[in-house]
Amino acid sequence: MDLNSNNVSDNTELQARGNWNQLKGAAKQKWGSLTDDDLSYSEGKQDEWFGQLQAKTGETIDSIKNWFHNATNDASATATGNSTELKARGDWNQIKGQAKQKWGTLTDDDLDYEDGKQDEWYGRLQEKTGHAVDDIKGWFQRTF
């Protein structure tokens, strides 16, 4: 259903609000020119907001809406526990200790994680440990 007639389902909008910080970070990674101000969303001004994003990114409004729809679905999967990213937060200090034991070259700074920068984080760990990103992801998934 689309109660406010903005071509984005109400379910998608509600999911997006719950995971908004995560989505903002992902949007800023996808479109490096976006700022927090660009991603400030005002209720009832969806069309204006999508128009501003279109102007800033050069993408079509439909492609932006599709990206947010897909990102929202990914964020929902993350919120239900299917992602290493959110699982890590609960026991992060313990996991950091285990990672430092496994890969002795890692420091607390190496293991600092910022929302929306998962790929950069894995790349930093790959550089520091010399292991493939898939191996590192697999270790984190098995550890939780």
UniProtKB/TrEMBL annotation:
Protein name: CsbD-like domain-containing protein
Domain CsbD-like: 15-65, 87-137
PANTHER family: UPF0337 PROTEIN YJBJ
Gene3D superfamilies, per the entry: YjbJ (1.10.1470.10)
Taxonomic placement: Bacteria, Pseudomonadati, Bacteroidota, Cytophagia, Cytophagales
Annotated family: Belongs to the UPF0337 (CsbD) family.
Xref: Pfam families: CsbD
